[in-house]
Automatic annotation (TrEMBL):
InterPro entries named among the record's database cross-references: GPCR_Rhodpsn, GPCR_Rhodpsn_7TM, TAAR, TAAR1, TAAR_fam
Segments crossing the lipid bilayer: 6-23, 35-59, 79-100, 112-136, 165-183, 225-243
Species of the source: Columba livia (Rock dove)
Protein name, UniProt field: Trace amine-associated receptor 1
Keywords: Cell membrane, Disulfide bond, Endoplasmic reticulum, G-protein coupled receptor, Glycoprotein, Membrane, Receptor, Transducer, Transmembrane, Transmembrane helix
């Protein structure tokens, strides 16, 4: 189990660290959209470095060795970073919506200031929600006796009452998930309509390609990538949040070991995110090669255009 979980953690750290280094180092990647990707990669990296490492010891040893105060800090940061990662995905879908459905005004609507506001929201709301819930014991509201009876010494797990379980699932998963589904449906219908229009135009002008066609192709590719990321996100996190919302109403019949396994299944979403960049973005592959071969230490390497063939 340790070997298996260490592999997951290393994949999460290496993948997201590569995204962080790539966007931070190369000047051509300094765009508002990529700043949002950079923020999400930072969240996923911290989730792997700060949360998954301690969760690994807890999951394998079935015991918490780091004290009660750090247990609360760990639970708060776990909820915060997991929620922030999901929030980033929903805001990335909003950015993709404007890029595909309103490309002429995309840069005007999604500028650096708007992205900074998005990033601030992605960090502050999950932080206030998570730390407020755990340190004010709002997650135990109405179920204090059940918690005291169920909790054993040396354990560290997030316990939800009926109310807090539903509220946590709605805030952390169902609202951003619904936003992603709705926006992706709009993107899909718009992209399909635009594709038919371009096919019609292409039949009239053979062997003629414009910058707009290239740009549209990139946006369609981004929309396709978003769709796959969204599907993986739903697969990874749906089981955990479903049982989080329903388990209190079923008198906590779900064994803790299963809940813990579903948490790790959700963590995999942060592992998979940078992998999709490697498959669908050529700039990521080229940046990865330059990082692996140490070319980022060469003079003026930050000016390398990763989009050139």
């Amino acid at each position: 189990m340790y070997i298996f979980m260490v592999c997951i953690i290393l994949a999460t750290l290496v993948g997201n660290l590569t995204v962080i280094i790539s966007i931070s180092h190369f000047n051509h990647l300094h765009t508002p959209t990529n700043f949002l990707l950079l923020s999400m990669a930072t969240v996923d990296f911290l989730l792997g470095f700060l949360i998954m490492t301690c969760s690994m010891v807890r999951s394998v040893e079935h015991c918490w060795y780091f004290g009660e105060l750090f247990c609360k800090i760990h639970m708060s940061m776990d909820i915060m970073l997991s929620t922030a990662s999901i929030f980033h995905l929903s805001f990335i879908s909003i950015d993709c919506y404007y890029a595909v459905c309103d490309p002429l005004r995309h840069k005007l609507k999604i500028n650096t200031f708007i992205i900074l506001v998005m990033i601030l929201v992605n960090w502050m709301i999950p932080a206030g929600f998570a730390f407020g819930m755990i340190f004010l014991d709002l997650n135990l509201r109405g179920a204090e006796e059940i918690y005291n009876h169920a909790r054993c010494a040396g354990e560290c797990f997030v316990f939800f009452s009926e109310t807090s379980g539903v509220e946590s699932s709605i805030v952390s998963f169902y609202i951003p998930g619904f936003v992603m589904l709705y926006i992706h449906r709009k993107i899909y219908s718009t992209a399909k309509r635009q594709a038919r229009s371009i096919d019609t135009i292409s039949q009239k002008k053979m062997h003629f390609e414009t910058k707009n066609d290239i740009s549209f192709g990139r946006e369609r590719k981004a929309a396709k990538t978003l769709g796959i990321i969204m599907e993986v996100f739903l697969i990874c996190w749906s089981p955990f949040f479903f049982f989080t919302a329903t388990n209190p109403f079923m008198n906590y019949v779900i064994p803790p070991i299963l809940i813990d396994a579903l948490v790790w299944f959700g963590y995999l979403n942060s592992t998979f995110n940078p992998i999709f960049y490697a498959f669908f973005y050529t700039w990521f592959c080229r940046a990865l090669k330059m990082i692996l071969f140490g070319k980022v230490f060469q003079q003026d390497s930050s000016r390398t255009n990763l989009f050139l063939e």
